[in-house]
Every structure is written in C-alpha cells, then in structure tokens.
TrEMBL record:
<dbReference type="InterPro" id="IPR002347">
    <property type="entry name" value="SDR_fam"/>
</dbReference>
<keyword id="KW-0732">Signal</keyword>
<dbReference type="InterPro" id="IPR020904">
    <property type="entry name" value="Sc_DH/Rdtase_CS"/>
</dbReference>
<dbReference type="InterPro" id="IPR036291">
    <property type="entry name" value="NAD(P)-bd_dom_sf"/>
</dbReference>
<dbReference type="Pfam" id="PF00106">
    <property type="entry name" value="adh_short"/>
</dbReference>
<feature type="signal peptide">
    <location>
        <begin position="1"/>
        <end position="23"/>
    </location>
</feature>
<protein>
    <submittedName>
        <fullName>Uncharacterized protein</fullName>
    </submittedName>
</protein>
C-alpha cells in the first residue's frame, strides 16, 4: 500500500544513515549546539578528532602553536599543518571551526585560551586533551626515542610530562567550571597502548600510564557533576609524520617494521570521540574512568574508518600476528602464506598479557 509522507521521510533517513555509516555514527549533525575544545590539533590525531567533531555539527576550538607564517615552526606552516587550516576543515565538514594560538607548556597561555572560550560561549561540552610535544626528539642523544632511560635522562621525562600529562591536568582544571555551566560534559584524554605495556621508553610509558590514572581518579570527583572522562587508545595511526617517515624510507627503522598501510587514519579516533559524545548518559557514565580502544569502540558503536574499513584492536590477534609474529617467521624462512594475514581471528588478549613487554617479546 502507499506509504505516508512521514513514513517515506523516515525510510529515506534510515537509508541515508546506512549509506553514510562510515562517516557518521548516529545521523546528521548530532552535536549541533555543542562546544568542543581539542588541544594540539594542527595535525595528527588531534586534527582528525577536531574535523570529525565538526562533521557532527559541533563548534570546535582548536589550539596549538603552528600558525601560518610562523617563524618558530616554519615546516608546519609550509605544509599548512596549522591550527588555521584545521579550523577551516572543521567548518568545511559542517561545524564551526575556531583557532586559538596556545603554548600548552605555558599555564598563562592556557588560561587565556579558556578565558576566551568563557567569554564567547555559554560553557564547554567536550574537552579533548591531545597536546603532545615532540620538538626535541631529534635532539636526544644516541638511540633517540628508543634509547635507555639513563641515556635519555630528564629531557625525555620533561618532554612527555610537561606537554602531555601536566598540560592535560591543567586543561581539565580550567574546563570543569565551563562544563558545570552546561550541567555536564565529556573529557577525552588521548592516551596510548604505552600506558599498559612497555613501548618506546620508560618516560613515555610512565606518562601514558599516569594519563590513564588521571582519567580514572578524575572520574570519581567529576561523577556528581555529570562530567565523564575516558582515556582513548588509538592503534597504529597514519599521521602526517608517520607517512612522511614512510616516504623517506625511515618508517621501518622507527617502527620496528610495522605495516603502516594497515593502520588507522586520524579520523578513526575522531569518530570514536563523536560516538562517546553521542552515547546515552547511562552508557557514558558506565564508561567514565576507563580506558577505551578506538577499534573496540568501533565494534560497540558500529562506525568505520575512512574507506569503510575497520582496523583491528591493538590487542587483537588479528593485529598482533600480522604485525609482529608472521613477519619474524618469514624472516626466518618459514612458509607463512600472505593470505593468512587476512584470516586471523579477532581474538582479544587480556591486558595482563602485555605487562611483561611489547608484543614481539611476549609472542
């Protein structure tokens, strides 16, 4: 029989939603009217999160030090990996993008950024703590990122704790009063698998582990105020820096031979953040204080990465065997057919398995 206009509109909306499943998790502009701040958003995961929040309709402030014409960061300005460009992309995606030049190593600069948001907005709904400084990586002594801690000394410690753990704490302190104005909010700390297993170096792991503890303990004090906080674990991410290393033939040495082509895009973390921001209050409250893997949130909420792909969780055999075990077996001359990489079951190992070291040491 003939369908009513209302039924036809509903059917059309469902079809459109299904066809756009890889780009949206809950329908068009679910975050319209929401105000978000993403720190360290000129490139990488922060940029991906900001753009996806904009695609969901949010008004997004992005912070960082990379500006067009900047003499301090000429390489970033040359490639337009700047907060201005990210803000433009937020607007192009359907949101409202705004940029604030902010040095997250400077508390006064952070306070000024939040003061501007407080002046321009009725409050803040979403904070994504992503800022991370890698400026001095190339200046470290022999061994660089993977050198023993007694070689790296205090420089590595300060680098990952000051703009990272400490700046996350400072931004969270500034954000809470603005979220209280709105009757609640969401804080996402971009953390790392390094918070649960040894990777790179001692200082990095301590910083990321502390970020996860920060998330857990803040959730206790924030619970009465309807503010939820989650630590987010991206997987292997195809950031601009990693892709550049791949182009320059340096990726294998930096990563230990991981297959970057099988990694996630920064948008995947963005879609995970949108999914959390749109989750029902009871569900989000239950997740508050926890660590959440981006790929596992994709399974739970039903969203994909770019290209309608869904990368495996970093603790799944589907990720670990093709990235770590099979390549080593092939180097030893053992017959491991290529098709086996795509046939590994999606079995997730418990976190306790990784306490002893990186996957190649426990395989």
């Amino acid at each position: 029989h003939a369908q009513s206009g209302t039924e036809m509109h509903a059917l059309l909306a469902l079809l459109l939603g299904a066809s756009a499943g890889s780009a949206s998790v809950v329908g068009p502009a679910p975050l319209r009217g929401k105000v978000a701040l993403v720190t360290g958003a000129s490139r990488g995961i922060g940029r991906g999160i900001a753009i996806e929040l904009g695609r969901a309709g949010a008004e997004v402030y992005v912070t960082g030090r990379s500006l067009r014409g900047s003499r301090a960061r000429p390489a970033a300005a040359c490639d337009d990996l700047t907060i201005e460009r990210t803000a433009e992309e937020v607007s192009e995606a359907g949101g409202v993008g705004r940029f604030i030049r902010c040095d997250h190593a400077d508390d006064a600069s952070v306070s000024e950024a939040f003061a501007r948001i407080a002046q321009e907005q009725p409050g803040l709904d979403i904070l994504v703590n992503n800022a991370f400084s890698s400026d001095n990586l190339n200046d470290l002594q022999q061994g660089g990122l993977r050198a023993p801690f007694w070689v790296q000394g205090a420089r590595m410690w300060d680098m990952v704790h000051n703009v990272g753990l400490r700046s996350h704490y400072v931004c969270s302190c500034e954000a809470v009063p603005l979220m209280m104005r709105r009757g609640g909010g969401l804080m996402v700390q971009v953390s790392s698998f390094g918070g649960s297993s040894y990777i790179f170096n001692v200082a990095y792991g301590v910083a990321k582990g502390a970020v996860d503890r920060l998330t857990r303990d803040m959730s206790i004090e924030l619970r009465p105020h309807a503010i939820n906080t989650v630590s987010l674990y991206p997987g292997l991410v195809r950031t601009e820096r990693n892709l550049q290393l791949q182009r320059e033939g340096m990726w294998d040495a930096e990563s230990g031979g991981l297959d970057l082509d099988k990694g996630e895009t920064p948008s995947f973390s963005g879609r995970a953040t949108v999914a959390l921001a749109c989750a029902p209050p009871d569900m989000l409250r239950a997740l508050s204080g926890s660590v959440q893997v981006v790929a596992e949130l994709a399974e739970q909420f039903g969203f994909d990465d770019e290209g309608a792909t869904r990368p495996a969780s970093i603790r799944s055999l589907r990720f670990l065997l093709p990235q770590y075990v099979f390549p080593d077996m092939r180097k030893q001359g053992l017959p491991v057919p290529g098709w086996l990489d795509e046939r590994v079951p999606d079995v997730k190992l418990p976190w306790a398995v990784f306490k002893g070291g990186p996957p190649q040491d426990i395989a």
